[in-house]
Amino acid sequence: MIKVSVMYPFKPGVRFDHDYYRTKHLPLIKSRMGAALKYYTIDKGLVDGQGKPLGAYVAMCHLLCDSVDEYESSFGPHAQELKGDVSNFTDVTSIHQISEVVVENSAKGGAEALESMRVR
User: Fold this and answer.
1) Among 12, 87, 88, 103, which is 20 to 30 Å from 59 by CA?
2) Could you tell me where the DSSP H helices lie in 16-109?
3) Could you tell me which of 42, 98, 95, 18 has the C-alpha nearest to residue 65?
4) How do residues 33-44 score in pLDDT, each as one tens digit?
5) Is the backbone of residue 18 left (phi > 0), alpha (psi -120 to 50) or beta?
6) pLDDT, tens digit, for every residue of 62-107?
7) Which domain holds residue 45?
8) What's 64's domain CATH number?
């Protein structure tokens, strides 16, 4: 399994519409990628009491697919449309990372979780 992380850096005056991102942009990605996108997560960066960021990013999403080939073949044909939607929720340039998921057991329990963590 692979994870494509899209991270939006905090910077002074950054514009980021979390509601649009959650209710419009990520569902649009899911609808275009179809079954190749197994699931996604969205992270919202936090700020302290004075409004100072507690991390480096205002938001992130993580797209999980079985392989890089599945990601590329399902995202690629819609890349222009999806990139064109970015200006509807932010004015910051995103950073991308593609990783292999080596442990993922959040939805599993007991022996099933232990089995998924075994080195193969």
Assistant:
1) 103
2) 18-20, 26-33, 68-75, 79-85
3) 98
4) 999 999 999 999
5) alpha
6) 999 999 999 999 999 999 999 999 999 999 999 999 999 998 776 6
7) 2-116
8) 3.30.70.100
Residue 87 burial (CB count, 10 A): 9
For 6, residues 6+ apart whose C-beta sits below 8 A from its C-beta are: 60, 61, 62, 63, 94, 95, 96
Phi, psi of 24 (to 5 degrees): -120, -55
57-65 β-sheet, strand order: 39-44, 57-65, 2-9, 95-100
Quickly count: other Cβ atoms within 10 Å of residue 9's Cβ. Answer: 16
Ranges assigned E (strand) in 25-115? 39-44, 57-65, 95-100
Cα distances from 104 to residues 1, 4, 98, 113, in angstroms, run: 9, 14, 15, 8
CA 15 – CA 22 distance, rounded (Å):
15
Could you give the number of structural domains in the chain? 1
